[in-house]
Amino acid sequence: MLTVSEALDRAQMLCDAAAKAGADAADALYYCNAATSVSMRLGALEDVERSEGQDISLRVFVGQRSASVSTADMDAGELTKLVERCVAMAREAPEDPYSGLAPEELLFKGPVPDFDLDDGSEADPAALRSAALAVEEAARAVAGVTNSEGGSASHSRTRFALATSHGFAGGYGSSGHSLSASVIAGEGASMQRDYGWHSAHHLTDLESTADIGARAGTRAVARLNPGKAPNGKLPVVLDPRVSGGIVGHLLGAIAGPAIARGTSFLLGKEDQMLFDSSIVIRDEPHRPRGLRSRAFDGEGLPTAARNLVEGGKITGWLLDTASAKQLGLTPTGHASRGGGASGVGASNLHLAAGSVTPEALMKDIVDGVYITELIGHGVNPVTGDYSRGASGFLIKDGALAGPIAEFTIAGNLIDMFAALIPASDLEFRHGTNAPTLRIDGMTVASS
């Protein structure tokens, strides 16, 4: 694995070589991840895996034509061939009036701030084995757990570097730690499975093996002997482990490329009251130790905190350079990059907590459903129509009344946004976080 400084040197070398080969502009992105994971099952070692992958991608522009290539080979000779091949490809590509690097005057400038994403740790296979064993044992200790799919622990290190031919160079590194357990409760055809997991940049921020394991076991046992869900238009309450998906659907709908293509159900609705006026959905790219924190986006533009929803309305689109050009707007610092053209993405997203507890949120529900798992991807990004398989618990007279499974919930995201009520139990555990959410009037149908 290259250091951030070495990766930046390699990326800058590619940009310089592209200019010498006839490119008008270029950028190069380096990404590397090294990970070690250990899995235990039924108290015995099941798997030890070590992986390290690196990739450097070059994107060049010749006039309004562009091409991208990538390689895992860091040999200087191979990289020279890569540059020549990429420039030759660009000369033959069709013209794209919206292609090009981000505006030079908008680039991030100055030193990259430290968001404390790296705890300086190295992988310790013995410690990972102990943690994987402990998290599985904690899950298996829950009364009613009968089998295990295993416990796992992992450590990773990541390096990211981006350089452009018009003056940007920046990079950063991070560490990662994760724990998970998956167990089975019951016997025969009545078996139920569930899991618990957590990840963090710093080992000291990682939830304990006892808590993760106990949660996995307790959840599996709670799902035993599920009944049927009621049918009709009912209040639906989403557990925090699935409620963040609502924020994800909003993100896809306000992404600049979808708006430019005319394929978003929110197109033309930017001035409408879509949510209750108290709802806030916020992007915070500079949060210390945030799982998606970053000082600059995939094109070298600075990032900044922003409310994506406030006062009941969306505050605008998330734009990379290409979609901004198509829409006659300015890029917003939300470009995401893989190997080729940029896309759009946010960083640390959350839907702000409400003022009532989850218990109070459900108190007046006579008949409803509480969702702990969603299945499938039945969301139409053009119309906003939503239909997902689900499992969870019946809500009866304001309290959870028993597990239910094999049913669907359906609606339209516009209606769901308008009906959304958050509870007060927001926790920052993932890249996208939301509290318990209540949405009245969804269609529930059991199979």
TrEMBL record:
A GO BP annotation: proteolysis
InterPro entries: Metalloprtase-TldD/E_C, Metalloprtase-TldD/E_cen_dom, Metalloprtase-TldD/E_N, PmbA, TldD/PmbA_N, TldD/PmbA_sf
One Pfam family named in its UniProt record: PmbA_TldD_3rd
Protein name: C69 family peptidase
Family to which this protein belongs: Belongs to the peptidase U62 family.
One annotated GO molecular function: metallopeptidase activity
Residue intervals of the Metalloprotease TldD/E N-terminal domain: 36-90
Metalloprotease TldD/E C-terminal domain residues: 232-445
Membrane-spanning residues: none
Domain (Metalloprotease TldD/E central): residue spans on this chain: 121-224
Classification via PANTHER family: METALLOPROTEASE PMBA
CC per GO annotation: cytosol
